[in-house]
Write a structure and sequence with these properties.
single chain; 472 residues; alpha/beta; 5-stranded parallel beta sheet; 9% strand; Glyco_hydro/deAcase_b/a-brl; purine metabolism; Chitooligosaccharide deacetylase; NODB_dom; PuuE
């Protein structure tokens, strides 16, 4: 089983974005242009539009036009767009447009205004329709047609993509189409990242439905412009502070002509634009600018080891010896669920360690007994594994005095007689003196306590061996 979802991401140590000018935050305004591309029987669709309009809870009307919703979309093209265009151009703020191809083909004035303002026009798909049930080949054909019409309408092919009402195949299909500097059909991070599909890396610039005016027409959303402003301000304040603390992020703001283009809602957006003017260390950018910056400063680096992508032979060759002479642990891990979260030293150790913990007591006892005595007969005969040899040498156990060797021998014998397995300790965490001290202390434990202690040390040894593998 391979689990495709990446629930790890950058983790607690995201890369430093290095935004231009040392900015603490990159702000990105997205204007979704969908008017004229929505569901409509005039467009060859089976029913009217029912999504993201001021008829909350609307349902599609099969075979009929919904005059009210059509009119609300038309407000976005006729009025809302120009109100937003004036705000951004007067404040010299760059914008990325998510343009539905068929909508752009019906918007000569708006497209020219976008081009004159040097706004980026990214693709928002062929039509503003639902894709979740679309056949893979049909969606691929629509992606190709969207690129064609977009190029006709704007003069250049799109470099960015966001479907929005996407399917589980969308990001893969856009990656396969090729030619895109970024794809934005995810909501999973505050920074761009690379996603590999068919052995090819694709830059992902996540989008947002939180800092998004769509919440004016959804349950528990914004009731007025002030609530929109406060949500944007709080998001900005949090991300700006994190940037000051050394972890700059990106803030996406999603807008729709027919929604925030309404006067009362618009005032909340304007208030936010005025608010961010008070800050110096911000970078307001188009998404294509962010994509180019990320590609320059954080180019794709293929992982040295990606356990979840290995075949069985490679996996066993790499991890089969992590638990001393116990390859069944690695075999069970490979046969179980692995995913992107396991493609790190901590992640693959977690998978292997869990298999060790789920083994029976007899199996775990077998793992303990697979470990050699410290400075014992196998070491003297040079019959230790390469890992064990290196580990024991790291604490000087390969160069004992006769007295020290006698002490270890005596302790080994007493320990095994009492517990039925050899003394195990993560040698790389210790010195010869601390190992002897632990030996003398732990030999006084009861068996249950010592069994648990030895198992924990086995896990620690495995972690250290894995970290060495990843370090190369």
């Amino acid at each position: 089983m391979r689990y495709p979802r990446d629930l790890a991401g950058y983790g607690p140590n995201p890369p430093h974005a290095n935004w231009p000018g040392g900015a603490n935050i990159a702000i990105q305004f997205v204007l979704n242009y969908e008017e004229g591309g929505e569901n409509n029987i005039l467009h060859g669709d089976e029913a009217s539009e029912a999504f993201l309009a001021d008829v909350v809870g609307a349902a599609p009307w099969p075979g009929a036009r919904h005059w009210n919703i059509e009119s609300m979309y038309e407000y976005g093209a006729r009025v809302g767009f120009w109100r937003l265009h004036k705000l951004f151009t007067q404040n010299n703020l760059p914008v990325t447009v998510y343009g539905v191809a068929t909508a752009l083909m019906r918007a000569p004035q708006q497209v020219q205004a976008m081009l004159d303002a040097d706004w980026e026009i990214a693709s928002h798909g062929y039509k503003w329709v639902e894709h979740k049930d679309m056949e893979r080949q049909d969606e691929a054909a629509q992606i190709a047609e969207a690129v064609r019409l977009h190029t006709v309408a704007t003069g250049t092919r799109p470099l960015g993509w966001y479907t929005g009402r996407c399917s589980v195949n969308t990001v893969d299909l856009v990656s396969e189409q090729g030619g895109f500097a970024y794809v934005s059909d995810t909501y999973d991070d505050d920074l761009p990242y690379w996603r590999v599909h068919n052995a090819t890396p694709q830059l992902i610039i996540p989008y947002t439905l939180a800092n998004n005016d769509m919440r004016f027409v959804t349950a528990s959303g914004f009731a007025n412009g002030e609530e929109f402003f406060l949500a944007l301000k709080d998001s900005f304040d949090c991300l700006y502070r994190e940037g000051e603390e050394g972890s700059p992020k990106m803030m996406s703001i999603g807008l729709h002509c027919r929604l925030v283009g309404q006067p009362g809602r618009f005032e909340g957006l304007k208030r936010f634009v005025d608010y961010i003017k008070e800050f110096d260390k911000i970078w307001v950018a188009r998404r294509i600018d962010i994509a180019r910056h990320w590609a320059d400063h954080h180019p794709y680096q293929p992982p040295r080891i990606a356990p979840s992508q290995m075949d069985a032979e490679s996996f066993m060759a790499t991890f089969g010896g992590v638990f001393e002479h116990s390859p069944f642990i690695a075999q069970r891990a490979w046969e179980a669920e692995l995913g992107p979260a396991n493609d790190s030293p901590l992640g693959i150790h977690f998978a292997l360690r869990n298999q060790f913990r789920m083994a029976t007591d007899d199996e775990r006892l077998g793992v303990l007994n697979a470990h050699p005595d410290l400075a014992g007969k196998l070491a003297a005969a040079k019959r230790l594994t390469a890992d064990s040899t290196s580990e024991q040498a790291s604490a000087g156990l390969n160069a004992l005095t006769d007295e020290e060797r006698e002490t270890f021998t005596e302790l080994n014998i007493r320990y095994v007689e009492k517990f039925g397995f050899p003394f195990i300790i993560a040698v790389r965490d210790n010195t010869k003196a601390s190992i002897l001290e632990a030996f003398k202390t732990r030999i006084a434990n009861d068996r249950a306590t010592e069994f648990a202690t030895a198992c924990a040390q086995v896990e620690r040894i495995a972690r250290l061996r894995i970290e060495a593998l990843f370090a190369g």
